[in-house]
Structures are given as C-alpha cells and as structure tokens.
C-alpha cells in the first residue's frame, strides 16, 4: 500500500457566482447555496488505496440469468466476493437511485412542464442554453453522489469547475459525469442518457467550509478529476428510451440492467456484452462531411461505396445523442465517430465525462476507441471541459479507420489545430 505525505494547509478560496445556475445578472445575486463557492481545504498524509482487484463475478452473472438478478443483488455479490469494494457498491447504489429519478423526470417531462429551457438567455460554461432537465438532473445526481458518503470530488458537464465534497460526507472516490447527455433531443422525446466515470482520488482533500481563495495546492486537489481514462475503476451510462437501461462495468466486463418499472428495480438483461468484431453501420454526423479532413472523408466514402475491407455497403444511423449512438454501436457493431472538423477543430465531445467513460465501456466489451491518433484512454486531460475527437466501435472497423486515416494524417496537421480551443 502506497503512502503519500501532503502538507497541511488552510487557504482561503474565492467564492464566485456560478454561470450555470445563477439568475441573470440584472436580477439580485443568487442565494449563497446556489453560488459556485470553492470550499476551504486542508491537506494531510494520505494512503492511496490500491486499485481494487478485478471482480470475479462473471460466472455468477451467467448463472443468474436464469432467475432475474437485480442490480442491488449483483452489487451485494460484488461486495461479498471483494471485501475492499463495499464503498464502490454504496457509490453505484447512489448512481442507480439517481438514474431512476432522472428516468422518472424525463418520462413525464411533457406533462409536468419540464421541457424547454431553464432560463432564456442563461448559458452554461460551454455557451449553451441549459434545459430545465439538464439543471434538475445535475442536482439529482450531485446529491445522490454527495450523500452516498463515498465521494471526494465530483465534476459535471453542467458545472464550471469540479466540486469538493464537505468533510462530513468525504470519501475516497472521484466521479465525473454528464447528467443528461443529448438533451437537445429531449423535446422530441428521443433517447438521452447519463454518463459517469469513477476514479480513485490521487490527492486527499479535507473540506471544511466555504472560504475565499484558491491556491495551487487546492488546484492539485481538484486535479483528481484530470486523470487519464486508463485509471477509471468503473464507468457506466444510463439510457432513457423505450426502456431505461443502466450499462455498467466495474472492470469485469460490461453488463446491462433494465429498469423493471413494475417493481422499481434494475434487472440484469445482458451479462458480459461483447461488441461484434465488425458491423455494417456507421454513425457520424454526415452534414459535417465537407468539414472533415480527407482521411475521414476517404474512410466514409469506402463505407458508402462498399470498397472497404468487408466489401459491403454500410447503413447510416445517427441519433445525435451520444449514449444512444454508442449503445447501438456496442450491441449491433459498426463504428461511431465525432471527428475533428473545420469548425470543431478538436472534435465536439468532452474527454473527461463523455469520451473516456465511453472508451472504457467499449473496451470492456472488446471494442476500441481512438482520437485517430491516440487511444482515448491514454490521454491525460488538461482541463475538465477539454474536447477530443472520438472514434469507437467494433475492433475491425476501428482498425480499418486508423489505417485509412493514417494514410492522410498529414491532412489533419494542416487543419492547424489550436490546442487552446480544445480546453
Ligand atoms: P447534445 O448537444 O444534444 O447535448 O455532446 C453533446 C451531444 O448532444 C452528444 O450527445 C451528441 O453525440 C452530439 O452532441 C451531437 O452533436 P451534433 O448535433 O453536432 O451532431
């Protein structure tokens, strides 16, 4: 077991209003609980826990397909077989509760006036107008995680900066998440999803209360959220569609639990999911074709014409909701991509809470995920909202993409990627 020594320090941290939840500037300032306050922290000697062992519950999952296994029962089995994973089980329980709550909100959004914008003219950190359900889902997930008692730091798509958890609830885990991805599809009743990834904290932070300044050591504490995807110890997504499914990996393969609305429980419906070696579907936003670099265009043209390695013409499917497109790709095979283009020179998707968890899950199912240059899981994020190109799917399809793309890689370099715009 590794021991780290961290200086004890009690700085003051600046308390700024948040852009994501605040009222428009002309109205009175938001109440204190709605502000983006960074809490005062102190540092101490910490023991960095080893990564938990792989979970040998695969056999159990196979057998238990004969009788319905709830996610709760599965988690209890994980805890029984892995004494050091009790906290992780508590954490996933918090997430499954949040997913049920968000599924219920999404399901009745049309009849409870939850569709549409949160506040006209109020933008989040990405410059996008937030939907009511973006804001609500963020609160639901944040609270479920906070009060699980297992959290140290959380980072969300909907928050400007990572959030440290108050001392009384502090735990050992770092969770990154996108509470409601694909929310531009909401008002049309199309699928949306929650994406999450779990790391172990590398720096320990003791959080006391809300104070008034921040220094480099506190930033180090928040940098717990900037770990490469390779260090994820769990990830998952919840898809809100014709049914609600929680697709999860604790590092032991990929398993799908479907919400049985009659009993209010997630029930195991697919154990040890394996992505097909090759598919016949491509899922890219085709309207960007003329904005892509030549390598991507050449690859897509081969799929359209059937001049690719499998000599078969591929079908196009693109929902425009990451969770839905990745879920279909995992189950049916093929390739999903949001590459860089002339407008989005770093791609559009966020490395920390979109690309990395999805890459981890796809690899757990035997697939591959890349930027076109590097394996997604090898990238160390420089900022919490950094964007990266994402190509993932069946191993043979991704390999073929890399070959074709590699032939004209120089073309990407001529796009003059401005790295700052990725952050
Ligand atoms: P959305 O803007 O609706 O939130 O990253 C967000 C995302 O959706 C992904 O879910 C989706 O894959 C992508 O953007 C779609 O982008 P385009 O509309 O540019 O295709």
TrEMBL record:
Its EC number is 3.1.3.11. One of its GO terms (cellular component) is cytosol. Residues 275-405 form the Fructose-1-6-bisphosphatase class 1 C-terminal domain. Its cofactor is Mg(2+). GO terms for molecular function: fructose 1,6-bisphosphate 1-phosphatase activity; metal ion binding. InterPro entries: FBPase_C_dom, FBPase_class-1, FBPase_N, FBPtase, Fructose_bisphosphatase_AS. One of its GO terms (biological process) is sucrose biosynthetic process. It catalyses: beta-D-fructose 1,6-bisphosphate + H2O = beta-D-fructose 6-phosphate + phosphate. It is an enzyme of class 3 (hydrolase). Homotetramer. PANTHER family: FRUCTOSE-1,6-BISPHOSPHATASE-RELATED, FRUCTOSE-BISPHOSPHATASE. This is fructose-bisphosphatase.
């Amino acid at each position: 077991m590794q021991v780290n020594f961290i200086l004890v320090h009690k700085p003051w941290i600046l308390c700024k209003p948040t852009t994501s939840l605040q009222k428009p500037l002309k109205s009175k300032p938001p109440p204190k609980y709605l502000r983006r306050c960074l809490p005062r922290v102190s540092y101490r000697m910490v023991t960095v826990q080893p990564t938990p062992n792989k979970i040998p519950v695969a056999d159990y999952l196979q057998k238990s397909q004969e009788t319905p296994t709830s996610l709760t029962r599965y988690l209890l089995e994980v805890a029984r077989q892995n004494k050091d994973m009790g906290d992780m089980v508590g954490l996933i329980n918090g997430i499954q509760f949040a997913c049920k709550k968000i599924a219920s909100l999404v399901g009745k959004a049309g009849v409870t006036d939850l569709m549409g914008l949160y506040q006209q003219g109020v933008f989040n950190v990405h410059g996008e107008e937030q939907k009511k359900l973006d804001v609500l889902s963020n609160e639901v997930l944040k609270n479920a995680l906070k009060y699980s008692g297992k959290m140290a730091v959380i980072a969300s798509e909907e928050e400007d900066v990572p959030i440290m958890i108050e001392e009384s609830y502090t735990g050992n885990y770092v969770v990154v998440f996108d509470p409601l991805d694909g929310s531009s599809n909401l008002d049309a009743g199309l699928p949306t999803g929650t994406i999450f990834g779990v790391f172990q904290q590398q720096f320990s932070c003791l959080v006391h209360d809300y104070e008034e300044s921040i220094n480099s050591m506190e930033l180090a504490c928040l940098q717990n959220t900037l770990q490469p995807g390779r260090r994820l110890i769990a990830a998952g997504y919840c898809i809100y569609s014709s049914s609600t499914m929680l697709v999860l990996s604790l590092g032991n393969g990929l398993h799908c639990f479907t919400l049985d609305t009659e009993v209010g429980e997630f029930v195991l419906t697919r154990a040890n999911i394996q992505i097909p070696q090759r598919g016949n579907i491509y899922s890219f936003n085709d309207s960007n074709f003329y904005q892509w670099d030549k390598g991507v265009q050449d690859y897509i043209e081969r799929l359209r014409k059937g001049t690719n390695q499998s000599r078969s013409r591929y079908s196009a499917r693109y929902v425009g909701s990451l969770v839905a497109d990745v879920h279909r790709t995992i189950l049916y095979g093929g390739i999903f991509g949001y590459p860089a283009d002339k407008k989005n020179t770093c791609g559009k998707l966020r490395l920390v809470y979109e690309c990395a968890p999805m890459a981890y899950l796809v690899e757990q199912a035997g697939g591959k995920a890349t930027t076109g240059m590097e394996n997604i899981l090898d990238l160390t994020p420089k900022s919490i909202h950094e964007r990266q190109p994402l190509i993932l799917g069946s191993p043979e399809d991704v390999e073929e993409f890399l070959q074709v793309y590699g032939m004209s890689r120089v073309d990407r370099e001529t796009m003059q990627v401005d790295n700052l715009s990725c952050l």
